[in-house]
Amino acid sequence: MNAAADYPEMHAFGDRVPFSLDAEQAVLGSLMLAPHMLAQVSDWLTEGDFYRHDHRMMYRAIGGLAERESPCDPVTMTDWFEANGLMDALEYPSYLVELANNTPSAANVVAHAEIVVERSRLRQAADIAERLRAAALHPGAASDAVVAEASHQLAALQVSRLRGGLMPIKPSMSRLFDQMQERYDEAEKAGKDARPLLGMPWPWRDMNRVTKGLRDGVLYVVGARPNMGKTVFGLQAAVFNALRGEHVAVFSVEMSTDECMARAVAATGMIPHDWVDNPTPYDDDAETHWSSLSNAAGQLIGSTLLVDDTPSITIDQLMARARRAHRQKPIRLIVVDHIHDMGVDEKRELRREYGRIVQGAKTLAKELNCPVILMAQLNRLAGQRKDPRPVMSDLRESGEIEQKADVILFLHRDDYYDKNSKRRGIVDVILAKGRNIKTGENVELVNCFEQMRLKDNDGWGHDYTQDDPRDIERYVPKSFRR
Prior knowledge:
By secondary structure, the protein is an alpha/beta fold. 45% of the residues lie in helices and 11% in strands. Helix 15 links the parallel strand 4 (333-337) and strand 5 (372-377).
């Protein structure tokens, strides 16, 4: 059969259409001979992967007959087409007989199916190119949006359709024992009182103790009301790991890059942010501040920290940019500040829109194999309760976020609601949800917001003053330096 002659629409992409007639016929003929082989391909070979319309309908018929445990010979297939009013989809009735008779064996069905999927992916890539061209030529087109959408679609094609599936447990068990042995050896080297991490470190000792670090592939949602310190929390975690030599990406939807860098240099150099924002020679410590700022700026410039401050960025744009940066150099941590300032389709239900953002962030965490920290606003209900400490229902559009997040942390300050609180200067990190961590625990950090940072509470936080002379710690502890 001359496919190009019989199907002139195949020239839509040019003379060399990504299509294999032989492979499509071989797959269908094999499944007619051995319907049980459908189980080997049905989870990754879809109806849409076939180019010809009649082949798509045949694959659908085979699946329908297999569900009823009926044979898939030409007679039962023809009966299925008649019952579903699809006889017009067949080029000619004897085509089913030809497929069955011309397929000698079903042994190579998986290999033939892989060819069908490969050609399908090439057609999808060509289709994306066509849509990109049309979008780019559309009046009023925005280049950032057009390129981001195309990058997102192309990146999705990079994920193999053959991944996943039921596998024997032996390889997994072998990996588990290797990991356990490695962690055991690390613990032995570190000493009895040490707690080796299972991921990248937080900047705070007690956070590392209760979470065992920032784990690859995990989505962390950090929820807080305004002025609780969530931007300080997220940016400090990002800068901390960037100064350790990790490739870190920050998507600052709320603040500009310049504002982020002012905060980062204040935290790194332990300089008052007010002075960084408005330096003056009349400050008694001006000379010291300049020296600290110069050193901190040098460290930050030498790091691999990336910042994107696009306002109202969509999740599709964010994912495309993260993937593009990851291809240049693997990203080890992503921080997004924050979800409720991101672009959404206001015509759709907000709960589902925010759920799509969280799912996108979770997909990035697993696909790039790195932790993702996603900041989120809490609603006003917390401040109206007798006990204002946040709970799950305080997350704005909470259902989707609560369901999809791997770990949920809340930030809370008693002194925000009670200026006379005995816990003045303490920021609580509440572990609300998470696997393999101590949920329900509360980590106390000390508010150093004048320097745009938080620090560990060493047991003296209740009588803490922000100019306490004991504040002599380095921003990046030696134990975490490279």
